[in-house]
Amino acid sequence: MSLSLLLEQVLNGLQFGMMLFLMSAGLTLVFGVMGLINLAHGSFYMIGAFACAGVAMATGSFFLGLVAALAAAAVAGVLVEMLVIRRLYDRDHLDQVLATFALILVFSEGTRYLFGSFPLYLDVPPLLSGAVALPGGIDYPVYRLAVILAGGLLAVGLFWLVGHTRLGIRIRAGEADREMIAALGVDIDRLYTIVFALGTALAGLAGAIVGTLQSVQVGMGEPVLILAFVVIVIGGIGSIKGALIGALLVGLTDTLGRSLLPVAFAAFLPPSEANAVGSALASLLIYLLMAGVLVFRPSGLFGAVRA
Amino acid sequence: MIRERYLNLALLAALLAVPVLAQVQGAPFTITLATKIAIFALAAVGLNLALGLGGLVSFGHAAFFGVGGYVIGILASHARNYEPFLTWPVEVAGTTQMLVLWPLAVLVAALVAAAIGALSLRTSGIFFIMITLAFAQMLYYFAVSWPTYGGEDGLPFYLRGDFPGLNTMDPISFFGLCYALLLVALWLFHRLHRARFGLALEGARQNPERVQALGIRPFQVRLLAFILSGAITGLAGALYADLNRFVSPAMLGWQTSGELIVLIILGGVGRLCGPVAGAGLFFLLEHWLGGLSEFWQFWFGLILLCVVLFARGGLIGALAKDQTHD
Amino acid sequence: MTEPILEARGLCKTFGALVASDAVSLDLRNREIHALIGPNGAGKSTLIKQLSGDLRPDSGQVLFDGHDVTALHVAGRARLGLARSFQVSSVASEFTVLQNVLLALVGRERGAFGLFRRVLSDTRLTEPARGHIARAGLAGRERDRAADLSHGERRRLEIAMALAQAPRVFLLDEPMAGLGLEGSGEMTALLDALRHEAPILLVEHDMDAVFALADRISVMAGGRLIATGTVDEIRADPEVRRAYLGEAVS
């Protein structure tokens, strides 16, 4: 494999990682601040993708679609938090798992009712279509580069938000001690709604961005949700930094594994077998990565030791 | 209010009576439905051991269910095709003998549970839920991308395994086997619950710190519970594979894990016959709602949400008088 | 002089910049009640956790009956006969009183892996359990759920569980806390009787109880052990008075 092909795969890995970061950032905050496990986070990813596809098809503008995705996922997040999630903070994890599992069923079937079972396809907007030449003579899609860039900017923005704003101070205080921040006079219900909706908006954005790379369909959220879990287990609960590092690790490991392992096995196996063995093993890599982190750091790379 | 013991007997009697009546009336579909209920109840009895008694919210029991199924599928397909399963270091042929396949499925599921449990039980709470889910998903993707045994399309094997003296393709006979194994598993659950092990396991759920200070290591007790739990669920997976004469990655999927938890909640967590009540309720709802609407899962989701938010304790909890453990 | 049954040798433990244990050495001998006192934040809890195995010291040793148990986990030390009660009373709250004590017996007989050995119908367990419950003053309450007990009764249940462990050492962390005047009086009498069972290392803020029960007293302040001696010696020690007793007793 040539160096330029490797560079291409590294960029693909980064792009995948950035998408996972958008998905994991909200999830890890909700885990960290509210102590809530939200299986329905993938539904907001799906809502974002469908909102973007629907609006983009109706108006012809991908960017209006992105705005719609953010808005739809945020509004759905606020509603779900106020109607359901709020009642779950004091419940045990089992109740949280069940209630959010039920939400997945409701959202998935509701979307199937509205949009049908056939996948929708989103086009890359003209502004971001085309490719740029990378060193080594490989053309790389502008859109994917834009995703990496946007992900990086959003990461910087989130670090700033959590590290340097009043909201961020409250979020961090809420992670440390719920009673304390209530005692400080912060409206904790509103804080929780905001954090939850921030997370769902980011998930919706991730879904909209991916909608142009893959098809938009019911059930698209859950595989990504489980990857986001892997990211959080690796990065540590409640840590934005952990989510970023974890997401990039998972993105790169998965992408490079899938492209390199079949090649590596081809060195001593016949091509068809090498491909089969290589890609089967590649699908295990990120979970092995997770297992490795668990053995050495049970609470994740950047998690507080409280598991 | 009814005593839980009578309720349990009534449930088990109903699960037996319905397919027997259906046999008399010639309604094989009902027998299949009852078989499915018995099999999923068995799988949930396994999960109930870890989740109900041990408080271990495993969102990855599909792994054991699917592994049990694949043991059957793989060995049965080798046997039907007359290809040995292994040629080196010793030749191992496939088999269709249930009495050989079941213990193998149990053993392999237990080994997988030991590996997953040993890693996952290093953590607790939310971490444990996410990790068990992730490991199950790992097996799912492995099954999808491993082409030898059907990959994404799954693996059909046309005929059920053989059981001495029974025609297993006869629906009522196969139901009988599943029902008998369910009874064995329920007996096992009951005995474990009432034993020193059960006391230690429940103690570790309520107060691991205290249990440890009494000289019992929660990790070890939980790991054993997790392995037994996975083994029982693996056996259910084996039966499910035989019922359908087909295994596919879907058995390993996260929805299966979620459904098993739902069954237990519907029936009542930690209660002996909770899984039976839950499985019965779940598949009857599926049958009934599915007849009403193409989008039955939407309504099922709403019902489930209401049960979680407003009606805890499950069906048995609602019907039976709350018994103190004595 | 008897050999110490439990001994801490030069235990050091720091959390970041905080020195919680600064070369603490302390021993517990047979048939004595040894009280550990000191102001809040003196490092008593950290010391207890190192003795029980919840915390691993940065340096130093813990000896149990002459054997080094520094690397042994909590459950292992419990099986050697280290019985404890917690600062905040800690029982299995969904279990009955009887089940809680049975749990302690199962821990002692290393029976947690008895998959088919019944508990409640096994008189080899229930008979001694009832005995321990009665000794702790809870006779007749066997079938009540631990969650339904009063605070004082839960303290007694902890004592019954400790008795069931066939203890060689009691490690009691503030057993009087929150008991009120009458309750502490009863608990004092109970502890006084327990010393014949096994020696007690007693962390306590209730000075009346400490002076009534203790054979020896150790005083901690700022992570250091500043004095160990008899009740009279401690009362007279000027450093102790300065560090602690000056405020607590006149």
Instruction: Give the proportion of residues in helices of chain C.
Output: 25-40%
Helix segment count of chain A? 12
CATH homologous superfamily identity of the largest domain in chain C: P-loop containing nucleotide triphosphate hydrolases
What overall geometry of chain A do the principal axes of the alpha carbons give?
globular
CATH topology of the largest domain in chain C: Rossmann fold
- Count every beta strand of chain C, where a strand is a DSSP E run of 2 or more residues: 10
Sheet bearing the most strands of chain A, described?
2 strands, antiparallel
- The tally of structural domains of chain A comes to 1
Taking pLDDT < 50 over at least 5 consecutive residues as the criterion, the unreliable ranges of chain A are: none
Strand content of chain C: 15-25%
The unreliable regions of chain C are none
Summing up helix and strand content along with how strands pair, one would put the structural category of chain C as alpha/beta
Q: Which CATH class of the largest domain in chain C? A: Alpha Beta
Task: Name the largest protein-protein interface in this structure.
Answer: A-B, 45 and 44 residues
Topology:
The complex is a heterotrimer of chains A (307), B (326) and C (250).
Chain A: H1 3-34, H2 41-59, H3 62-83, H4 93-115, E1 131-134, E2 138-141, H5 142-164, H6 166-176, H7 178-183, H8 188-211, H9 221-235, H10 240-266, H11 271-282, H12 285-296
Antiparallel strand pairs in A: 1-2
Helix pairs in contact in A: 1-5, 1-6, 1-8, 1-9, 1-10, 2-3, 2-4, 2-8, 2-9, 3-8, 5-6, 9-10, 9-12, 10-11
Chain B: H1 4-25, H2 28-53, H3 62-81, E1 84-86, E2 92-93, H4 98-120, H5 125-145, E3 155-156, H6 171-194, H7 196-206, H8 208-213, H9 218-244, E4 246-247, H10 254-267, H11 274-292, H12 296-310, H13 314-319
Antiparallel strand pairs in B: 1-2, 3-4
Helix pairs in contact in B: 1-2, 1-6, 2-6, 2-9, 2-10, 2-11, 3-4, 3-9, 4-9, 6-7, 7-9, 10-11, 11-12
Chain C: E1 4-15, E2 18-29, E3 33-37, H1 44-52, E4 59-64, E5 67-68, H2 74-80, E6 82-85, H3 97-108, H4 123-135, H5 151-164, E7 169-173, H6 180-194, E8 200-203, H7 207-213, E9 216-221, E10 224-229, H8 231-236, H9 238-248
Helix pairs in contact in C: 3-4, 3-5, 4-5
Protein name (chain C): Amino acid/amide ABC transporter ATP-binding protein 1, HAAT family
Domain ABC transporter (chain C): 6-247
Organism (chain C): Tropicimonas sediminicola
